[in-house]
Design brief:
mainly beta; 18-stranded mixed β-sheet; disordered N terminus; single chain; about 900 residues
Length: about 900
């Protein structure tokens, strides 16, 4: 039997979909709102000073962005400034479910990454650019659809918002350009990212197929920001900011097929994308010839970078050499030159050695279901006591911590020593063996001053630079811009010299007075190399962007503006706004036409959502109803009421369907810490396929899950879910267990087991342990005791069921990327599986049915039109079961993961 399921675009409404994912942790502190023109700020009382600054920025920025992007947004912009219960170094912008941006205050975790003065302003400048990019709809069709459907998905996701399928190379690159335009610094001032761009140019990798696609090669997704930012800057330098930003309004005209980047670029600047990219690539390649690199063999390499750290005895950091495996802790002994490696479950971040001698990484993670906190995490992601809410830079000799206080650092990092405030800083802090603190402070404009303790030593012009170390003679080493990237410099008694000729050094730690261990930018990895220290008569290079001198600089903000207060509490259910109508079509080779229409309402923090839906699913049932979900509190829940509009043909032995029904689900997480999660989950479900079935279930999912880099599958998963289900006086109980493990070289082993037992006396009227095919979503049944048997002919029931399965997967990274050809191949995976079943019938005199399935599959990770990931799967099953639909079964799967 061959069955094909294909979906053009399905946002399927399930009677049990996943619980709503809030932008905040549950039971967060109260929020307040204030309207600032066409913008609504959402903030906490503690963030009131930050909100007032944001109001001043938005007051000045939105009118300027209106001019630059050539239009005014047709949706209110919601700007969330989240509480310190959510200590994440990130922000995001999306037109769904509302035109919004969510900004988190953990920027001190990435203090040397952005080359910016204010983390808050960087978020506002960058994310608001995304809002303008994605909300443009300069065509009559999208405008008309928006009038009725809002920013919903209609048939295809780009019909209402054409620009959402544009490559992140242009989306993120343009946002980096705009973040660097306001006098706040930005990634265009970073020598590290200039070196990365030149290395890619030198290797001939600035090609349309390489930069425009989301690929699994170095620099991975960061190339969108790095390379995209410098490409956009080159365009703006030639054509001006307004012409470059006008691309988004112009591109939104292509509502039906918005994959014509060449033609839109030609209409905007007079040249197509490929020509403009080639011109820029040639310019970068020419400059790259003047760049000096580090020769010699590296001591270590990584695909994803985390900062170096050191003390008097050693230099230490973490690496992920393949980009797909467990991280390794690297410790370089300064005296012996010996390098040790230890693989482990390390969180991503700068390594710090505690006074007790333990190595931990500075990161953020869940410390409970109610908190995401920055701090020091040991191997296994265990938070060290006393470090929550702190970005630990190191310790004084007496064990006193030196750290950035995260709740106080939403705008700029606030440095503390022990419990006392010490200074505002704009770089990481180096602590020498005498407890002296060294750091940079950004002053007025581009004045960047190095401090020793609280004494200024010298200033340079720029936004980029951090301290590398102090030698035995008191000479201070630091990273700063060079003409072609980033380099190592030395400050010695009032004089600055260059300490190494390479333009590819973006971080370093001293080994002794004559050598350092440096992080080196290469075209295919970040490497760690030992370098000799020299004396070169050269000072840091001042990066000057064209708009600093052409009058195209952004308007100054008045920080005294935006006198907002606490008059308007944010009450989540009252903040529901119409967020669009989704219309989706699909097909199934057996069922035929599939569709979903969903009318959606949500609040900007996505704490609650309401939808009215009509859907025809793969079971050939047409349902209509309402669903409400809430994740504001620790107890998260969703309820659905539905009616059956149409049913498939049934035979006489099948139970009658239900005409109206109700389902409810709730989850109470009681353990969420690092990689581990535990919750109590309950569901109630009135089955639409059988009007007698009303299962109630209780489950206790416990799991520890790890996935690193760009690994296709989890590197480790240990999960156990005991459960009970009750239906019409019958009880079922059992458990499901899963173990998945990375075996190295991208081999993955998955083992699973499930046992379900029912107290039912017979299988009539849909009683007992349910066996289902799995073509329809297992979760829709709200019955964890259901056992999935992929080759099953029809849904059936048993007294008990045991399933044991094993699967071996191998990922290959054969890739072929294209720009004008519509399909690229990113990677592929082969799998081989075996499942064994022990099915107990209701008749005690009848023997158990022992049966098995063998399977093999191929997954192709294809990428369509440079934007849409579309996995294609082919699975073959062999079954010896009399319950199987056929002894040999082949399934094709095609779906858009968007």
């Amino acid at each position: 039997m061959i069955r094909l399921a294909s979906f053009l675009f399905m946002t399927t409404v399930s009677l049990q979909a996943a619980l709503l994912q809030s932008s905040t942790v549950p039971c967060d502190t109260p929020y307040f709102t204030a309207e600032i023109g066409d913008c609504e700020l959402i903030y906490t009382e503690a963030n009131l000073p930050v909100a007032r600054t944001a109001a001043a920025v938005e007051n000045a920025m939105l009118p300027q962005y209106d001019k630059l992007y050539g239009y005014t947004m047709d949706e209110t912009l919601y700007v969330g400034l989240l509480s310190s219960h959510n200590q994440i170094a990130n922000g995001f912008s999306t037109p769904y479910p509302n035109n919004r941006q969510i900004n988190y205050g953990g920027g001190a975790l990435m203090i040397d990454y952005f080359s910016a003065t204010s983390w808050l302003n960087t978020l506002l400048f960058h994310e608001t650019a995304h809002n303008y990019q994605m909300n443009a709809k300069d065509n009559p069709v999208s405008g008309a659809l928006h009038t009725v459907f809002g920013n919903g998905f209609v048939l295809l996701p780009w019909f209402t918002l054409p620009n959402i399928v544009e490559s992140s190379f242009l989306l993120e690159g343009n946002a980096v350009l705009n973040e660097s335009w306001h006098g706040n610094g930005g990634r265009l001032y970073s020598g590290r990212f200039k070196a990365a761009t030149l290395q890619q140019a030198k290797a001939g990798l600035l090609t349309p197929e390489r930069v425009y696609n989301a690929h699994y090669d170095f620099l991975y997704g960061s190339h969108f920001y790095t390379l995209g930012g410098f490409y956009q800057y080159d365009l703006a330098n030639t054509y001006g900011m307004a012409d470059v930003n006008a691309y988004w309004k112009e591109h939104s005209y292509e509502w039906f097929w918005p994959f014509f980047t060449n033609s839109t670029t030609r209409r905007t600047i007079g040249y197509d994308f490929e020509t403009s990219l080639r011109t820029w690539a040639d310019t970068m390649a020419a400059e790259a010839r003047d760049m000096t690199d580090v020769e010699g063999s590296p001591l270590a390499a990584t695909q994803f970078y985390t900062p170096i750290n050191s003390d008097d005895d050693a230099v230490y950091f973490t690496v992920n050499a393949t980009g797909r495996s467990f991280p390794e802790l690297i410790v370089y002994d300064k005296k012996s030159g010996r390098l040790t490696r230890e693989s482990g479950s390390y969180r991503t971040g700068k390594v710090v050695r505690t006074p007790e001698g333990r190595y931990a990484t500075q990161s953020s993670a869940y410390t409970s279901p109610l908190r995401i906190e920055a701090g020091l995490y040991t191997e296994g992601a265990h938070l060290i006591d006393g470090t929550a809410g702190r970005v630990i830079e190191g310790y004084l000799r007496d064990g006193t911590p030196v750290y950035f206080d995260v709740p106080a650092s939403f705008d700029q990092p606030q440095l503390f020593v022990g419990d006392s405030f010490y200074a505002r800083t704009n770089s990481s802090v180096f602590i020498d063996g005498e407890d002296n603190l060294y750091y940079f402070v950004q002053g007025e404009g581009k004045t960047r001053t190095l401090y020793k303790n609280k004494t200024p030593l010298f200033s340079l012009r720029g936004h980029y630079g951090n301290v590398s170390g102090v030698d035995s003679r008191g000479r201070i080493y630091f990273i700063a811009n060079t003409p072609h990237g980033s380099g190592l410099f030395r400050y010695d008694d009032g004089k600055i010299t260059r300490a190494h000729p390479a333009d590819t050094l973006f971080e370093a730690r001293l080994i002794d007075d004559t050598h350092a261990l440096a992080a080196v930018m290469k075209h295919d990895a970040y490497t760690y190399q030992q370098i000799p220290l020299e004396t070169i008569d050269e000072t840091p290079y001042e990066v000057t962007l064209f708009f600093e001198n052409t009058g195209e600089n952004a308007p100054e903000t008045n920080t005294t503006a935006g006198a907002i207060g606490l008059e308007h509490p944010y009450r989540s259910p009252l903040e529901l706004h119409y967020s669009g109508t989704d219309v989706a079509l699909g097909s199934d080779s057996d069922t035929g036409l599939l569709y979903t229409l969903s009318l959606n309402f949500a609040d900007p923090l996505t704490r609650n959502a309401l939808s009215a839906f009509v859907t025809r699913n793969v079971d050939a049932y047409t349902l209509g109803g309402m669903r409400y979900a809430n994740s504001e509190y620790l107890l998260q829940f969703a309820v659905t009421a539905y009616g059956v509009i149409d049913t498939p043909e049934r035979n006489a032995t099948e139970p009658a369907p239900r005409h109206f029904g109700f389902s409810a689900e709730a989850e109470l997480p009681f353990w969420q810490r690092g990689y581990a999660y535990g919750a109590l989950r309950g569901t109630y479900y009135q089955d639409y396929e059988a009007d007698t079935r009303t299962p109630i279930s209780v489950a206790l999912p416990l799991a520890r899950s790890e996935q690193y880099g760009v690994s296709m599958y989890r590197n480790a998963l240990y999960a156990l879910t005991p459960y009970s289900a009750f239906d019409r006086g019958d009880a079922a109980w059992g458990a499901e267990a899963v173990l998945e493990r990375d075996l190295s070289h991208e081999f993955y082993l998955a083992l699973g087991g499930q046992y379900s037992q029912s107290s039912a006396d017979n299988g009539l009227d849909a009683r007992g342990v349910k066996l289902a095919t799995g073509l329809a979503d297992k979760l829709k049944e709200n019955d964890p005791s259901t056992v999935i048997m992929p080759t099953l002919r029809d849904t059936t029931y048993a007294k008990s069921a045991l399933k044991a399965d094993a699967e071996l997967r191998k990922v290959f990274n054969l890739s072929a990327y294209f720009f004008t050809f519509p399909v690229s191949l990113r990677r592929e995976a082969l799998r081989a599986g075996y499942a064994y079943y022990d099915l107990e019938p209701f008749n005690p005199s009848a023997p158990h049915l022992y049966t098995s399935e063998a399977s093999a599959g191929l997954t192709l990770d294809t990428f369509w039109f440079n934007k849409l990931p579309l996995p294609i799967t082919v699975d073959y099953y062999y079954s010896d079961s009399p319950l199987a639909s056929d002894r040999h079964t082949v399934r094709f799967g095609l779906g858009i993961a968007y």
